[in-house]
Amino acid sequence: MHGRLKIKTTAEQAAEKQKEREGKRKLYLGGVTKAFEKRSSGTHDEEGLKITAQLLAANPDAATLWNFRREILLALKGDDESWEKLLTGELAMVESCLMKNHKSYGAWHHRFWVMMNFPKPPWKAELSLCDKYLKLDERNCELYFFLVFHELQTVVEAVFTDPSDQSPWFFLRWLVNRQEKVPRMLQVGYVRYKGDSGLVICVFSQPVPQRAVPFIRLNGADSDETLIWYAPNDEDYSNVWVAELNLSSVEAHTISLIIDPSMTEMLNVGEGSTQAIEWVTTLEVGGEELSDTARSTLEEVKDNCVTLDELDPGNKWVLLTLVDVMWALDCHTHQKKIHSYLSQLQELDVLRNKYYADMKSKLAMETSLKQYRIVAEVGSKFELSGHSLTRITLSHLLASTASIDLSRNDLTSISPLSNLVACRKLILDDNQIQNLAPLAGLKALESLSLTHNKIQSLEQLKVLEGLSALTELNILPFQSVKCFLDVERLKLHLHKNLIT
Amino acid sequence: MASHPKDVVITDEHPKTLLLQKHADYIVGYSKKKEDYEFTMTEHFRMSGMYWGITAVDLLSQLERMDRSQIIEFVLQCQDQTRGGFSPSLGHDAHLLYTLSAVQLLVILDSIEEADVDGVVKFIVGLQNEDGSFSGDQWGEVDTRFSFCAVACLALLKRLDAINTDKAVEFVMKCQNVDGGFGTRPGSESHAGQIYCCVGLLSITGQLHRINGDLLGWWLCERQLPSGGLNGRPEKLPDVCYSWWVLASLTVLGRLHWINSSKMRLFIMATQDPETGGFTDRPGDMVDLYHTLFGLAGLSLLGETGLKQINPVFCMPQHVLDRISVSVQIMST
């Protein structure tokens, strides 16, 4: 099926070929019929082996014929010595089929079955055969990974021994892209959105199912009402879990989170307090901390790659490695460098231009969030405006933020913004946004600015109907509309000016 | 970038637009040439061949040209009365691969209730191993392709509860490699076809959060060669079937835009044969049903006009899945 070149032929040649194929077809069909007859009559004999061998040599993927063959072999099984002889013959037979198609799943599986049936499998000979076919397949990542990548140090050597071989680079990418194994709870908060109405928010470092949310006790006692947790993105696994909880604003409250029987975190909600946020652990955007060995090895790779880049500028793999390594070491310190490498890659590797653009966005988001965490006051403002963002990452780290400005970017999808459950003011001016559905659950939202986007009809605004706190909506260039998002009223306000 | 050692060259001679009617005629004609050498030599995967043809012809909106009742009759005859699975053709043995094709065919033709559905479920349940993996049949070959077949089949039959999906997911995760991709079994090299199966399984079971989308998405978009075509592993030739395995996986990961779609489209268009109709693996080779479906399906993912929308996980027309209310998880980005 694969790689059969179409050859132009004359009518005469075509007729000749047709005749030849018709002969082959009849022969094959006759063989299959005979084999199936034998099988249905329960005949398991040497002739059956012979017929299936011929058929499988022509068509090694015909699974049923392999099955019949195994049935015959099992029926002919005698003492150890004769069984071994039969199986040895079988290995030779499979090898001839592999010569026809060395990728045939059926042939390889049969060979495996034969080996497992040997009283003493001849593994040594088998390995040399595998070796032969591995060479036919030119390269084999699995063996390579096993043999070469036990030590980080070896990777560094591999990278510089043969920079044209891509395998070590894949390994490096994994090394610096790896994620922490166990999810951690990063943050818990209580946010009022209207009167006594409020939300309890739990943020995790990785998507977790609802059962991972800790049990919650209110003012020292078990809560009368059970909290109903939901994920803002409606998925079964989420970084953010939210529950409605009404607390009187004229009293102070304590929310206790029972993380496990020996560990409880307390969250104090003061009188009239609008927000109470607690970071359960320090935030690490990039996952687990690097070990000292990993760090010094990565430093070494970085220095070597910088040298390589100076000697031979514009090598994609060197640049990619620099991006990864610097990112893993400290994306904040190396931000400018990483950004410029990504720009170079965009020009060098045009096919993947949008991948690099998305990575730039990720870089901008990650570094800004690191900065934000260091200086932020509780409930403060996060701004990442004018950074050519093509996508939003790590939005769960903004779940308790009150004011967010992502204006003047290249955003088309805002799906991750469903996580902004505490956001009161959201500025998304000058993007390419069409679908507002991800904002439909942002109960705290009071002000939303969407000027210069792809909002062309009232229908697109309909998803905002349920946002009862929303009092300000900027939708058009130069137009600000104050309303309670009743679509009918909205129409009254907008019908003259809306469509752009 | 400089010319790639393993790539093909697309020239002005190659087709640039979709030869829609040619393809429909090729598929309809194929099903009528039962005396051909080609037809005989492909009997051992007839069920899949029929699924490729029927799906392709539905994408082309010409399903009515196929003999519906004859196909249903054939499929039903291929169900093993005692084991419950489907064989590729009469006289052959039941296998998970053809059981999925048969179920897909019956669902597309809206006649799944005519089969022994409990029998199919029993067959699949019996093939799950202790470690969560699936064997293709009683002879024990294990492969993540079979895990996908099992889970996709049961999802279409709405009987996923019959197997241990947690264990099925755990096994697939054991087949993940350091490059983010997946292989046939634990430790096997990453391969785009295998990645499609594993990503599909995780999508059906709602477990996509287990994948590092940026890492795997990058491996997948690195499959695009300067010709625009995609290969299945590093340093291999491009092949139009990867326009399906890779594009579908990227779609599920929400990162289809990471490849260059206009060059991709040009490559797929160039694999059409203007004489016979149908698609080939690479420009200038012989056409077959397999590459015809995956060429069309890839174009459908890229939003080609004139083609029905395809579902990236089940590789079936989206309207069919809407009809039976089966949905898949797509990574949100």
Automatic annotation (TrEMBL), chain A:
One GO location term (cellular component): Rab-protein geranylgeranyltransferase complex
Protein EC: 2.5.1.60
GO biological process, one term: prenylation
One Pfam family linked to the record: PPTA
Chemical reaction(s) catalysed: geranylgeranyl diphosphate + L-cysteinyl-[protein] = S-geranylgeranyl-L-cysteinyl-[protein] + diphosphate
PROSITE patterns for the chain: LRR, PFTA
Annotated GO MF terms: Rab geranylgeranyltransferase activity
Segments for region (Disordered): 1-22
Keyword Ribosomal protein: no
The keyword Repeat is assigned to this record: yes
Domain of life: Eukaryota
Keywords: Leucine-rich repeat, Prenyltransferase, Repeat, Transferase
InterPro entries in UniProt: Leu-rich_rpt, Leu-rich_rpt_4, LRR_dom_sf, Prenyl_trans_a
Function: Catalyzes the transfer of a geranyl-geranyl moiety from geranyl-geranyl pyrophosphate to cysteines occuring in specific C-terminal amino acid sequences.
Family: Belongs to the protein prenyltransferase subunit alpha family.
Protein name, entry field: Geranylgeranyl transferase type-2 subunit alpha
Encoding gene (name): RABGGTA-L
UniProtKB/TrEMBL annotation, chain B:
The record's free-text note on cofactor binding: Binds 1 zinc ion per subunit.
Alphabetical keyword list: Metal-binding, Phosphoprotein, Prenyltransferase, Repeat, Transferase, Zinc
GO molecular function list: metal ion binding; Rab geranylgeranyltransferase activity
EC number: 2.5.1.60
Pfam families: Prenyltrans
Keyword Metal-binding recorded: yes
Substrates-to-products reaction catalysed: geranylgeranyl diphosphate + L-cysteinyl-[protein] = S-geranylgeranyl-L-cysteinyl-[protein] + diphosphate
Recorded GO CC terms: Rab-protein geranylgeranyltransferase complex
Domain of life: Eukaryota
Names of required cofactors: Zn(2+)
Start and end residues of each Prenyltransferase alpha-alpha toroid domain: 18-316
Keyword Metal-binding assigned: yes
PANTHER family: GERANYLGERANYL TRANSFERASE TYPE BETA SUBUNIT (PTHR11774), GERANYLGERANYL TRANSFERASE TYPE-2 SUBUNIT BETA (PTHR11774:SF11)
Task performed by this protein: Catalyzes the transfer of a geranylgeranyl moiety from geranylgeranyl diphosphate to both cysteines of Rab proteins with the C-terminal sequence -XXCC, -XCXC and -CCXX, such as RAB1A, RAB3A, RAB5A and RAB7A. Catalyzes the transfer of a geranylgeranyl moiety from geranylgeranyl diphosphate to both cysteines of proteins with the C-terminal sequence -XXCC, -XCXC and -CCXX.
Similarity remark: Belongs to the protein prenyltransferase subunit beta family.
Subunit note: Heterotrimer composed of RABGGTA, RABGGTB and CHM; within this trimer, RABGGTA and RABGGTB form the catalytic component B, while CHM (component A) mediates peptide substrate binding. The Rab GGTase dimer (RGGT) interacts with CHM (component A) prior to Rab protein binding; the association is stabilized by geranylgeranyl pyrophosphate (GGpp). The CHM:RGGT:Rab complex is destabilized by GGpp. Interaction of RABGGTB with prenylated PTP4A2 precludes its association with RABGGTA and inhibits enzyme activity. Interacts with CHODL.
Designated name of the protein: Geranylgeranyl transferase type-2 subunit beta
Species in which this protein is naturally found: Homarus americanus
Upper taxonomic lineage: Eukaryota, Metazoa, Ecdysozoa, Arthropoda, Crustacea
